[in-house]
Amino acid sequence: MNQYSAENIRNIGLFAHGGAGKTSLAEAMLFASKATTRLGRVEDGNTTTDFDPDESKRQMSISVAVAPVEWGGNKLNIVDTPGYADLVGEMVSALSVVDTALILLDASAGVEVGTETAWRLATERTVPRMLFINKMDRENADFEAALASAVSTFGTSLAPVHVPIGKEREFKGIVDLLSGKAFVYDENTIGEFTEAAAPADLADTLETYRQQLLEAVAEADEELMTRYLDDEVISSEELAAALKNAVRQGAVVPVFCGSATSMKGVPQVLDSLASLSVPASATTAVVSTGEESGEVTADPEGPLVARVFKTIADPHVGRLSYFRVYSGSFKSNSSVYNPTSEKSERIGQVFYARGKDHINTDAAIAGDIAAIGKLSDTHTGDTLRGEGRPGMLPAIEFPPPSYAAAVNPKTKADLDKLGQALVRIAEEDPTLHIGRDSVTGETLLSGLGEPHVQIALDRMTRRYGVNVDATLPRVQYRETISAKATSEYKHKKQTGGAGQYGHVFLDLEPLTESDFEFTEKVVGGAVPRNFFPAVEKGVREALEAGPLAGYPVVNVKVTLFDGSYHDVDSNEMAFKLASKEAFKKGILMGKPTLLEPVLNISVTVPESYTGDVMGDLNSKRAHVLGMNPGENGSTTIDATVPAAEVQRYATDLRSITQGRGFFSTEFSHYQPVPPNLAEHIMSEAKEREAAAH
């Protein structure tokens, strides 16, 4: 592959709702540019960018993939992303390195949830957008309706540049509004087309759409607006130049159309991407060192600055790191410095990735996207610099987890391999988090939804041979007392030789300010002072498992107020055991209560779903605190809700809002469990204990 300057490199991300045809479009672009010799199909599992066996099996993209395309003297780094809602972290990764977002629409479905998500993420990151209305040859395909749904959702900055000739089975090609040329495709030879004059029967339609294009571009160009209002003639060349500036500023969103699977319109989209999308040379990056920051440009002779945006941990190939170079040159057989880990990395062979194929290169220069294998201390989001140079690019902000599963190995062999396998899987996807519940001892894998976690576990099983069961984690209940109690216990043991003797009286009372407090009010030396720490230690050990369901005991104040000792047989162990048993007796006398964790939850949904979401929250024992109107007709509902009720809330909310709602939670407090639920929780605990024995 040729080396290209930043001026001739375009980094373009494909984003859409799942099934809109991103992978098919990437495949069509590769075939049109003769980078591949056959046109793969998602249904056949043989596309270039869906090369992982899990992707072939599921017929959907799971990870970001790169497909460099050479077209018209330019290099287009096409970054194919998943469209499934749970894999939005991959979209975020891609948006951290692309300069233009090409968002696809299904011509028969119009704007879908994934379209809205892609648009929102690109807008938040100020990435210029383009729209491609795909599947124009499918049944019920309607360019006008799809465009209308996009305009009503995203605003009037959208402007058609390509207009279809025919629709559904009669879709033959496109008309380019800038040149006025028609491109008519051969029905018998895929990808073959001829140039022709625009069909006469489309004259009125083309004029209408050209006016829309002209108005949108004029809105972004003051001089052009003046000429437009004065009814001056604006040439196609002037319109094309103004459109290029407006697109690169993000002021206008050009709209194209075609069919990826039949290749219709794909060469023309490649022409438009090469001419209109942002060149890598126009992108600068901010590097921060402590409180100071500086800007770097796409200069191949400048200081090296690169960002790793994707990591693949393959057991056969090893770890692969995909990166974009913002400044300088990333050379093979050199060394770089990672300011995040503060370690140097030895660089082997740098290569361009085209799906699973590797194209070796001596260096990846500023503006380009490439990959490297076997970096030991570098992860997704890390900055790579010239040797010893500090300073980092801004961190990639990934969405927090919203669903957790307890992962239980099926066999002893699986247990031995589980930890390392989970680490490798999480290395690939920063939205996956591994943790361990210190109370229940469960290993937890958290992600953006139930399917997200299941996809990760399926991949782990296939790659590393680790078989697990995934269940909902046990809720972190607590136990406490609701009344004061006094208890006494005498530990006395005599078995020949030195004996054991410890005798304590404890007062237990509910506490609201803190989890636990220990005091003593012993008078007359009934219990010697040197045994007080042993008494407290015994109580603390007893706190670890309450009498109702074995959960930790909280919100209790314990006072040692009396006892007795033996000059010879009393020791720390005796008093520890005595206080532990005294506490166990006392808590049963103090009307023990089961407590459940309560979360603060903030749910943001389109206003039309507010009633349904409120009803669902009420059914989950939530207490709604208030509602606040937000941007774009959204409403945010603030509430408190028991944690046990929202373990699957990511799935529930997606179902209610068709994927348009999102939420966040944080721990608030503990509250008593209703008696009917407490009985069920306690019986489950007894069953677990019996099974363990």
Q: Mind explaining what this structure looks like?
A:
Helices cover 28% and strands 32% of the residues. The protein is of the alpha+beta class and 693 residues long. Strands 2-3-1-4-5-11-6 form a seven-stranded mixed sheet, with helices on both faces. Strands 28, 33, 34, 35 and 36 form a five-stranded antiparallel sheet that branches. The longest helix has 18 residues, at 572-589. The two termini are 64 Å apart. The mean pLDDT is 92.
Short description:
By secondary structure, this protein is α+β, with helices and mostly antiparallel strands. The protein is 28% helix and 32% strand.
Write down the overall geometry. elongated
The Cα radius of gyration reads 32 Å
Largest sheet: 7 strands, mixed
- Portion of residues within helices: 25-40%
Mean of residue pLDDT values: 92
Query: How many individual β-strands?
Result: 36
Strand content: 25-35%
**How are the strands of the largest sheet arranged?**
2-3-1-4-5-11-6
Class from secondary-structure proportions: alpha+beta
- Low-pLDDT parts are none
Topology:
Layout: E1 9-15, H1 22-32, H2 53-58, E2 65-71, E3 74-80, H3 88-95, E4 100-106, H4 113-124, E5 129-134, H5 143-154, E6 158-160, E7 162-165, E8 173-176, E9 181-185, E10 193-197, H6 203-219, H7 222-229, H8 236-248, E11 253-257, H9 266-276, E12 285-289, E13 292-296, E14 305-314, E15 318-327, E16 329-331, E17 335-338, E18 343-346, E19 350-354, E20 357-361, E21 363-365, E22 369-373, E23 383-385, E24 403-409, H10 412-428, E25 433-436, E26 443-447, H11 450-464, E27 468-471, E28 478-481, E29 485-493, E30 500-510, E31 516-520, H12 532-543, E32 556-564, H13 572-589, E33 592-606, H14 610-619, E34 623-629, E35 634-642, H15 649-657, E36 662-672, H16 675-692
Parallel strand pairs: 1-3, 1-4, 4-5, 5-11, 6-11, 31-32
Antiparallel strand pairs: 2-3, 7-8, 8-9, 9-10, 12-13, 14-15, 14-23, 15-22, 16-21, 17-18, 19-20, 24-26, 24-27, 25-26, 28-33, 29-30, 30-32, 33-35, 33-36, 34-35
